């Protein structure tokens, strides 16, 4: 039975922008697994009741239901051990540390760059929910939080070690992409899909890496609809 991924969509059902869903999409492509997606929106909580979960990604593999992007990646490594992504032991601990780095340093910087673009990309029926939830988290309005130039400077600083690594390596995990690449790419792809903002300067090692990531696995990510196409 084909795998099924519940995947966040925006104002156009084809607009898929969740950073966590993109981690999983790339992980599935890494494993060479065929999958279908189910478009899901923020307020469609009932659709996920079967998973006892209220957000995406949710992966269904036959009768197996797995939630949380990183847990899904771990599941895929165990259920489909060819082409491992996360490793074991010390290797796993390092990729786990990188996960926290992406979520707590990279993603917040990106959010400052794209906040209002993201709101515009969301389905109109979901915007009030999204605004209230995020403004409660940030303690300010989205308009106040949206500071693209500040976000770009913040992003440049936090990506400094990544940039240094990519000067000598095609991918974060070496000659081919794996878990660390998908963790960072998910967040960068999130911003790329919903915004036309330039995230990093052309020619920057991170920019070159992102272009390579768009083309891997048969160009899985390059086929994605973005706001540029609407």
Automatic annotation (TrEMBL):
Pfam families: GST_C_7 (PF22041), GST_N_2 (PF13409). Keywords: Transferase. GO terms for molecular function: transferase activity. GO terms for cellular component: cytoplasm. The keyword Kinase does not apply. CDD domains: GST_N_etherase_LigE. The keyword Transferase applies. Residues 8-84 form the GST N-terminal domain. This is Glutathione S-transferase family protein. It comes from Vreelandella maris.
